[in-house]
Design goal:
Low-confidence stretches of chain B: 46-52, 314-318, 413-426
Shape of chain B: elongated
Number of helices of chain A: 8
Number of strands of chain A: 10
Strand order of the largest sheet of chain A: 6-7-8-3-9-10
Radius of gyration of chain A: 17 Å
Strand content of chain B: 15-25%
Radius of gyration of chain B: 32 Å
CATH superfamily of one domain in chain A: P-loop containing nucleotide triphosphate hydrolases
Oligomer: heterodimer
Largest interface: A-B, 28 and 23 residues
Strand content of chain A: 15-25%
Chain lengths: 236, 476
Amino acid sequence: MLELENIEYYYPSQKDKMILDGVSYCFEEGRMYAVLGASGCGKTTLLSLMAGLDVPVAGRILIDGKELRKNALNLHRKNDVSLIFQNYNLIDYLKPVENVKLGGKADAARLLAQMGIDAAQRQRNVLQLSGGQQQRVAIARALAGRAPVLLADEPTGNLDEDTANEIIAIFRKLAHEQGKCVIVVTHSRELAQQADVILQLRKGKLSEEACESAGTEDETGERKRGKTTGQEPDGK
Amino acid sequence: MNLFGLSIRCLARKRVRTLLLFAIVFSASVFIYAGWACRTASVRTQSEGKRAVGASFRLEQNEANRHVRSSEALKKIGKSTNGSADGTHVEQLESGAWMVWHDHSFETLLMDDILTLAGQQGIAEYDITTANIVVELTNAARVEDPDMEHDREGNWVSLRGDRELRLNMNVQNGNIEVREGRMIVSGDENVCVVSRELAELNGLKPGDRLEFGERNPSETSAAQQAEIVGIYDTVQKMTPVMYGDAYRSENIIFTDLRFPEKAEGREGDPLYEYAVFWVEDADEYDAVKERMKAADIAWERYDFLDNTGMSDTVASNFGDMEKLSTILLVLVIGAGAAVLFLVFLFWLGSRTHEIGVFLALGRSKGAVVLQMLLEGMLIGAAAFGLATACAPAVSQSVADYLVGYELEQEVSENAAEGLMLYLDEGTEVLGVEAAVTAEVILGSACCVLGMIAAAVLLSCAPLAPKKPREILSRMS
């Protein structure tokens, strides 16, 4: 589905400090991944590269085996991935339905209904909705494009615990019932525990951790995992 | 959701921002309109004693243009140089002083232009009148004021050539009547009509011949003879154009059109002072006027007076009005563009969040810029539409102010050179007509929409090299 091959990245102003140092990993559909790491370790950078918002200094990103081209990143953002942000990033002059329509041509009202946004809430200004409701609208917008990969950057960072759990439940459902590849960047271990695969980003390297409480089992009874490529998983 | 729908929703739901931008674009549009309209404004003047009679129009030289042409010719000749250019001559006198003079080719109405106007649909007939040409009457005595000093001039009289004497303004307004003999008609050569007083003084009658010579004859000068075909009476003496018996009413001799130039030894170098065009159907007067004004002639050289004495003089002939309106236009466009640029820059800055989201959703930068441009154009179109409705009144006010300013400069004793009004004596400025024509609308629209497009594109330029991630990080 989404494959990283020896991704390197550093900021132009700090060339001696590698943010990502030869990261390789293959994300698969139907799973929810959590990327854990300390603040400033490069989690959001990794997400930005996967979303096509930035380009790596070295290495390749492949989607269904095809390498991302620099001049087609907007098409990648439009067709292959959907982004969900901590601060929702809804367009404030559009109603929830109109915001969802920005994401794609899917039935906006149906998507919002699936996300628990009722008809009256759909016609309000998005800023009049609660944080949880706004994030649901943002998820509906992400789903409207029917992209196979959902990238979420601290999606529950602004939400209370109950709402955060509801949002995570939605992500799990999207991965397991709709076959999406959901990649969530977070610094919350509790949230990460809900993922099928936990990835740790440390010193520019990405490694897989064992999941303890959440995750699903496949037909053979083994816990579903992603796989690192081109390097030995750290800590395994 | 398409760009148009998105733009409309943005403008409708961000009302304060939209209204602010609308007000700025509207203000800039109105002033741009005023600048354009003033550049092409018509200054309405009325000249005492100079007007067409009945259903006719009068064409005569424009004083401001005369001044401009003279200045251009002097530039061509060069400073402190004897020489000639375009009918202007510079000559250093023995005293060392410089003399500038113009020949008839500089001063005359152009025959081609007269014929073009005469050929317009609705013109029945026309007359051409020469300037007052002073010559020596060699075989008869002129009428003289016994109390006047005559040592410095000879037996000088005035010749006035007419193509068709019955169409002469003095005949048309009833001041002159030919009671003996006949009028001069088109095609006559070497004929004249003299005053009753001159005829009686010399015992002249139709069929007699008068002989004229140059005022300052040279060895090659030859006398010219004209046959008297009529004798005229006046109700009121004609106003002399200058002081002296040569110009007095009784000594004005009307001749055929080409005779005065022969008599002064300049055959082929006529000096036509004005032309009058008579309308075939008086009911069509205004329509004919518009047709004539649309004729392709050197209008900048002329004043075109109707039968009310009104003269539509283009702004360029009215002192520095064109210069002032151009300055106004440039200042408004410059200031408007700067303000719009800053407003759009501020506007765009407040929309970084939105732009980042659009980019994250897969829109290209081009599509984002196009949306900003579309929003700007929608506001511009609405503001420009309202400005178009207000433009006539505002343009008129600005034009009135500029003309008022020009007149103040005129009366000011120390008016700077170049701010003078070149109006004939007795000419009254009645007002200005700053018409908002299709040309003005088109010019203003191009300015306003061009300014908005430039402001949007310049404001968006900093986004071009930025990665979407940088824009997103700016918003957070």
